[in-house]
Amino acid sequence: MSLSLDYQSLGIRATGEDIANIPNNKLAKLMYYLQCVFYVLDIRDKTYYTTYKNYRSLNKREEEYVLYLARKFNPSFMLDNQLFIINSNPNFYNHCNNEFFLITDKRIGIRANSQVFIGGKSITVTKVMVCKRSWMEENYLNPMSLYDSNNNDNWRCTADRFFCMCSCVFVIVLIILGYYFIKYLYENFFS
Questions:
Q1: What is the pTM of this model?
Q2: Is 2 part of a structural domain of the chain?
Q3: What angle do CA 158, 33, 106 make, to 5 degrees?
Q4: What does the alpha-carbon distance between residue 117 and residue 114 come to, in Å, rounded to a whole number?
Q5: Are strands 121-125 and 114-118 parallel, antiparallel or unpaired?
Q6: φ and ψ at 117, to 5 degrees?
Q7: pLDDT, tens digit, for every residue of 42-76?
Q8: Do residues 162 and 170 lie in contact, with contact meaning Cβ atoms separated by under 8 Å?
Q9: Is residue 89 assigned to a domain?
Q10: Based on the domain organization, do 120 and 178 belong to the same domain?
Q11: Is residue 175 part of a domain?
Q12: Structural domain count of the chain
């Protein structure tokens, strides 16, 4: 994270809104998590995937895209780039488990920033979110663990794509080898 204090006019202002009422649903919670991520990163073109009150309107493909985005902008990414900050001090928070801050330089415009590269593009960040660890667990870790452990769709691989691909290739190779083994046995012992 870079920070210019040329004129020592750095401003930090809380910008949080009222308490969010997130439905008790794993998809809605992940959409809320993404809403916080996109607010910090100033990503405005994906609001359909962050409107958590409309989580029921997403089809299966859109739900998978939310999961993809959540994995892409996971807490490790956000914490490592100092976009999310864990603060366990209960006196820090007024009425919720997370708070947003806008960082500005009053004389020369925005100068406090963090350069984050997303999709090969550099994004200048002027907002951060401070949250409790319980907020991260409630809105990311618990919903993701429910997706990972309680996925009852037998047709879809629940492991990561690379592992799934390796498993599928392994099964195909076993079928082919089994075919040739049976053919060999038939030709050599039963004919």
A1: 0.65
A2: no
A3: 145
A4: 10
A5: antiparallel
A6: -105, 120
A7: 888 888 899 999 999 999 999 999 999 999 999 99
A8: no
A9: yes
A10: no
A11: yes
A12: 2
Amino acid at 139: N
Question: In angstroms, rounded to a whole number, what is the distance separating the alpha carbons of residues 34 and 58?
Answer: 15
Residues 171 and 113 occupy one common structural domain: no
- Any alpha helices (H) in the chain, and if so which ranges? 26-41, 60-72, 75-80, 133-136, 142-149, 161-189
Whole-angstrom Cα distance, residue 156 to residue 25? 21
Same-domain status, 105 and 30: yes
pLDDT band for 94, please (50, 70, 90 cuts): low
Q: Which domain holds residue 162?
A: 157-191
User: Averaged over 24-30, what is the pLDDT?
Assistant: 96
Quote the tokens at residue 41. 């990163």
Looking at the structure, tell me whether residues 27 and 79 fall in a common domain: yes
Co-location of 63 and 142 in the same domain: yes
Residues in CB range of 180: below 8 A, 6 or more apart: none
3 found inside a domain: no
Is the Cβ–Cβ distance between 79 and 91 less than 8 Å? no
Q: Could you tell me if 123 and 187 lie in one domain?
A: no
Bridging pattern class, strands 121-125 and 127-131: unpaired
Same domain? For 163 and 76 the reply is no
Rounded (10°) angle between helices 142-149 and 26-41: 130
> Tell me, what amino acid is at 182?
I
- Running DSSP on this structure, what letter comes out for residue 43? -
Work out the number of other CB atoms within 10 angstroms of the CB of residue 6.
Answer: 10
